[in-house]
Design brief:
There is one protein chain. The chain has 466 residues and is of the alpha/beta class. It folds into three domains: 90 residues, MurE/MurF, N-terminal domain (Udp-n-acetylmuramoylalanyl-d-glutamate--2,6- Diaminopimelate Ligase, Chain: A, domain 1, 3-Layer(aba) Sandwich), CATH 3.40.1390; 211 residues, UDP-N-acetylmuramoyl-L-alanine:D-glutamate ligase (3-Layer(aba) Sandwich), CATH 3.40.1190.10; 135 residues, Mur ligase, C-terminal domain (Protein-Tyrosine Phosphatase, Chain A), CATH 3.90.190.20. The protein contains 17 helices and 20 strands. The protein has a nine-stranded mixed sheet with strand order 7-8-6-9-10-11-12-13-14, with helices on both faces. The chain has a six-stranded mixed sheet with strand order 15-16-20-17-18-19, with helices on both faces. β10, α10 and β11 form a beta-alpha-beta unit.
Length: 466
C-alpha cells in the first residue's frame, strides 16, 4: 500500500491511536491478517470469525516484527510489549470494517485502473487471464487465489501502490448487497460478468435473484466506464439494461464484440482459437489449460485488454503465458502415463459439465475415470442437478464413475439408469474410501478427473493415489 504512519492509518480506518510506537513514527506499507506470513514492519489486523480470533496471536505478531496492531481489544500486557517493541496500537470497534475503511482510503490515493470481475463460474481464471493480459501494458496487482470477499478484496486493494497501473479484483457474493458493498470501496471502472449460472442458489433461490446480485457490479460503474458481458448468456440483455455505461460483449456468436472462431482441441484437451474483434485485428490464441469452457474466460480477459488498449498479439501472448490459480483444470502426470485432472477447488452444474467434456476430449481412446463429489449450495435445484450430472457423465464418455458424498448417490443412480454398467460405478462417503477404490482399479494410461465442492477436500486424492 502507499506508505502511511500509524496516525494516518488510524484516521483512515476510523480507529483510536492508543500508542504511536517508535519515534519518529515508521512508515507502514504492508498489511497482514496472518502471523504465519506476517512481514516485518507490517500492520497486523486482528480479525475475528466464527472459529478463530486473531487477538489470541498479538504476542506472536509483535515477535515477528509487526510495526502496528489494529485491534478491537487489547490487554495491558500487550500494550506494554508493543511499547517495548516500538509498535503502534490502534483500536477500532470492528477490525474487519476498519480494514475496509483503510482500503477505501488507499483506493482514493492510487491512480490504478480498477477491474471488477464476478459471475457464477470462471471468475478466478478470468481474473488470472486478465491480469496476464494487462501485465504487458503495466504493473498489475490482482486477487490471490479466490480473495473475493469482504476480507480478501480489501487486502488485495492494500497490495497496490503508487506504481500500480491496473488493479484486478475478483468479487464474490452470497447475498443481495454484497457486491455493492465491495464496490463502494473498490470503485471499479470496468466490470466483467462472466455468466449467470446455477451457483449459490441456497442463498439466492432463483437465477433471477442471482442475476440481480451480479448486476450490482454493473450498477456501481461510472458512466465513463465499461461493462463486459457474455453475449451468449441468457441474462445478457438484463445485465446490459443494468449498466449505466457502454457495454463490450464477448462470446462465440458474430454479434459479440470480441469472439472466438476456428476452435481446435489438441490431444491434451487444450484449446487453440482465433481471437477476433469488431474493432479490427485478430490473433491465434492458445489457452494454457484444458477445457473448452476456458475459451470464454480467455475472451472476457481479451475484451478487458481491448478496452485498456492492449494490442491483439500482446493479448494472445498474455493468455498463453498466464499463471493460473491451482486446483482448476490442473493437469498432473503420474507414473505409467496416468493423467489426473485436478479441478477440485469447487463445483456447480455448469463447471461439472465443462470438466466432463474436457475429460472426454483428453481421454479419447483411453479409459476415462470421473471422481465426482457433492455440489454444495444449490438449494432447490440440488437433487435434480445431481441426477443430471450422472446422465452427463455417461453422455461425455465416462467409463468409470466414483462418487463422493451423500448427494452424488443420485448421480450414481442416474448413471446406472443411463446405461453405465453397475460394476463401473462406486459410491463412497469420503476421500479415503474413494482413494482406496481408485488405487485398486487404476491402470496405466487412465485419465482421471477429480472434481467436487470445496468442503470435500478432493484435492487430497492427488497425493493419495500413487
Amino acid at each position: 500500500m502507499i506508505p502511511m504512519r500509524a496516525s494516518e492509518i488510524a484516521q483512515a480506518a476510523g480507529a483510536a491511536l492508543l500508542q504511536e510506537g517508535s519515534k519518529p513514527p515508521r512508515l507502514i506499507s504492508r498489511v497482514s491478517t496472518d502471523t504465519r506470513t506476517l512481514a516485518r514492519g507490517a500492520l497486523f489486523v486482528a480479525l475475528r470469525g466464527g472459529r478463530y480470533d486473531a487477538h489470541d496471536f498479538l504476542e506472536q505478531a509483535l515477535e515477528r516484527g509487526a510495526a502496528a496492531l489494529l485491534v478491537a481489544r487489547v490487554s495491558p500486557a500487550i500494550l506494554d510489549l508493543a511499547a517495548e517493541r516500538g509498535a503502534a496500537v490502534l483500536r477500532a470497534r470492528g477490525t474487519a470494517a476498519a480494514l475496509t475503511r483503510l482500503a477505501s482510503r488507499q483506493r482514493e490515493l492510487i491512480t490504478a485502473r480498477v477491474v471488477g470481475i464476478t459471475g457464477s463460474t470462471g471468475k478466478t481464471l478470468t481474473k488470472d487471464f486478465t491480469a496476464a493480459v494487462l501485465g504487458s501494458a503495466g504493473k498489475v496487482v490482482a486477487s490471490r487465489g479466490s480473495y473475493n470477499n469482504e476480507i480478501g478484496v480489501p487486502l488485495t486493494m492494500l497490495e497496490s501502490g503508487a506504481d500500480t497501473e491496473y488493479l484486478v479484483l475478483e468479487l464474490g457474493s452470497r447475498g443481495s448487497g454484497h457486491i455493492r458493498e465491495l464496490c463502494e470501496s473498490a470503485r471499479p471502472e470496468t466490470g466483467v460478468v462472466t455468466n449467470i449460472g446455477w451457483t449459490h442458489l441456497q442463498y439466492f433461490h432463483t437465477r433471477d435473484s442471482l442475476a440481480r446480485a451480479k448486476a450490482e457490479l454493473l450498477q456501481s460503474l461510472p458512466p465513463t466506464g465499461r461493462a463486459v458481458l457474455n453475449a451468449d448468456d441468457d441474462y445478457a440483455d438484463f445485465l446490459r439494461g443494468a449498466s449505466p455505461c457502454p457495454v463490450v460483449t464477448f462470446g462465440y456468436s458474430r454479434r459479440a464484440d470480441v469472439r472466438a472462431e476456428d476452435i481446435q482441441v489438441d490431444k491434451y484437451g487444450k484449446v487453440i482459437f482465433t481471437l477476433k474483434s469488431k474493432g479490427g485485428g485478430k490473433a491465434r490464441v492458445a489457452v494454457p489449460l484444458p477445457g473448452r469452457h476456458n475459451v470464454e474466460n480467455a475472451l472476457a480477459a481479451a475484451a478487458v485488454g481491448k478496452i485498456m488498449g492492449v494490442d491483439m498479439e500482446s493479448i494472445a501472448e498474455g493468455i498463453a503465458n498466464a499463471e493460473t490459480t491451482g486446483w482448476r483444470m490442473e493437469m498432473i502426470s503420474k507414473p505409467e502415463e496416468i493423467t489426473i485432472i485436478n479441478d477440485a477447488y469447487n463445483a456447480n452444474p455448469v463447471s461439472m459439465r465443462s470438466a466432463l467434456m474436457a475429460l472426454g476430449d483428453i481421454s479419447r481412446d483411453k479409459r476415462a475415470i470421473a471422481v465426482l463429489g457433492d455440489m454444495g449450495e444449490l438449494g432447490p435445484v440440488s437433487e435434480k442437478a445431481h441426477q443430471e450430472l450422472g446422465m452427463i457423465a455417461v453422455d461425455y464418455g465416462t467409463d468409470i464413475l466414483i462418487t463422493v458424498g451423500r448427494k452424488t448417490r443420485k448421480t450414481a443412480q442416474a448413471a446406472r439408469e443411463k446405461g453405465l454398467p453397475r460394476g463401473s460405478i462406486f459410491t463412497t462417503n469420503g476421500v479415503d474410501k474413494a482413494a482406496e477404490i481408485l488405487r485398486a482399479i487404476i491402470e496405466p494410461g487412465d485419465v482421471v478427473l477429480i472434481k467436487g465442492s470445496r468442503f470435500l477436500g478432493l484435492e487430497k486424492l492427488v497425493d493419495l493415489v500413487a
